[in-house]
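hey m, so remember when u said the tokens were messed up on ur end? i reran from scratch. heres the input so u can diff it against urs
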Amino acid sequence: MSTTTTLDIRPALSDDELNELFAASWPGHGTTSFAPVLERSLVWVAARRAGRLVGYVNVAGDGGVHAFILDTTVHPDQRHQGLGRRLVRTAAAEACARGAHWLHVDYEPGLAPFYTSCGFRPTEAGLMPLVPRD
């Protein structure tokens, strides 16, 4: 019997389940409180399989026509099955429905093929670190 992965728009999410997903997906992730992030988000999309959180993407907005994809995360045991693309495309549609005209994303060079497959095209952008990095 196959278990379906479901996507939910703006569901209630606990810090425990988000931290568990992020710890599995991002080595070195520490415990974080997500409430301040979600309170300021335009939309977020969560993926569940058999009740377990296996994917998440957040969209921040500027209050106008620009929105920004953040924290695209798929549990390692659920990768390479199209779930990340489903999350991003659903988030894009929801951002559009909420008034966004442009969706931005920053990513490491190795993720370019993934984001291209989601519909993004490369552009030049700038980045200024505001906190010194080690």
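this time it looks ok to me. The beta strands are 5-9, 41-49, 52-61, 66-74, 102-104. if urs says something different then somethings off w ur setup not the seq
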